[in-house]
Specification:
heterodimer, A: alpha/beta, Transcription Regulator spoIIAA, 37% helix, B: alpha+beta, Heat Shock Protein 90, five-stranded antiparallel β-sheet
């Protein structure tokens, strides 16, 4: 079943992950693999575009928690964009906006990396 | 609007979460909740089932989870039953979110979310026999 998909794009030194569908305990390992693969090739500037993300549970949120520390240690970051109000509510309920930059639009997230070395 | 009791039994596998969500969201919608409330109820039930798959059954796919929904008198209730490892719900600390986030901890968010999303969360643990978590949401509140 393909209830969750990830598309990966690169924009100069920024890696964009586009999430689509339902991110739950079943599909979270897919996102984990995507982050793992970026980390192993030392790509630490990551924008996660949530425009087509319909659903997230704590298993999905846990993936962001699992990687953010290592990514920031390597001078990178995970920035999130284009979240629907429904998905944003779940992030907000757990206080994630204190920890992650969540912006309305992908280009804005990309811009936040500019002027920063790879 | 009353919703008569309906039960869904699923295997303890994460790929079955989607079926549980569809089952619960249809019943919650029928009971008269707004889309926003339907989403909250559905997420709370997903968290309860995910906890059972991970902790009570430790990913044993041969076990089953029984989800029963019923609604009446403005109160919508979901009972989720398993026969896996018991636990003491009062021994699971509510995470201090500030501390939690500052240490980048992972997991343990499910119970916190359930309590935040629902009006009432009750556990009935019969050690060695069955565990039940009962989630309640009130209409117009």
């Amino acid at each position: 079943m393909s209830e969750f998909k990830i598309a990966h794009r690169e924009n100069d030194t920024i890696n964009i992950l586009e999430l689509k569908g339902y991110l739950d305990a079943h599909t979270a390992p897919k996102l984990e693999e995507a982050f793992q693969s970026l980390m192993s090739t030392r790509r630490f500037n990551i924008v996660v575009n949530c425009r087509e993300l319909s659903y997230i549970s704590s298993a999905g949120l846990g993936v962001f928690m699992a990687f953010i520390e290592d990514i920031r240690k390597n001078n990178g970051d995970i920035k999130l964009s284009n979240m629907s109000p429904k998905v944003y509510n779940v992030f907000d309920l757990l206080g994630f906006p204190l920890l992650y930059e969540i912006v309305p639009d992908e280009s804005e997230a990309v811009k936040k990396f500019s002027g920063k070395a790879k | 609007m009353a919703v008569k009791a309906q039960t869904l039994t699923v295997e303890s596998r994460t790929e079955r979460l989607i079926a549980v969500r569809e089952f619960v969201s249809a019943a919650a919608k029928e009971f008269g909740f707004s889309d926003d409330e339907v989403s909250k109820i559905t997420l709370a039930v997903d968290e309860a089932c995910t906890n059972i798959i991970k902790h009570a059954y430790k990913y044993d796919p041969g076990k089953t989870i029984v989800v029963t929904v019923r609604g009446g008198n403005g109160s919508f209730e979901i009972a989720i039953m398993d026969t896996g490892a018991d636990f003491n719900p009062t021994a699971v600390p509510s995470p201090d979110m500030k501390e939690y986030l500052s240490h980048y901890r992972r997991g343990g968010l499910g119970m916190y979310l359930m309590k935040s999303l629902m009006d009432k969360v009750e556990y009935k643990i019969q050690p060695g026999q069955r565990n039940e978590v009962r989630l309640t949401k009130y209409l117009h509140r």
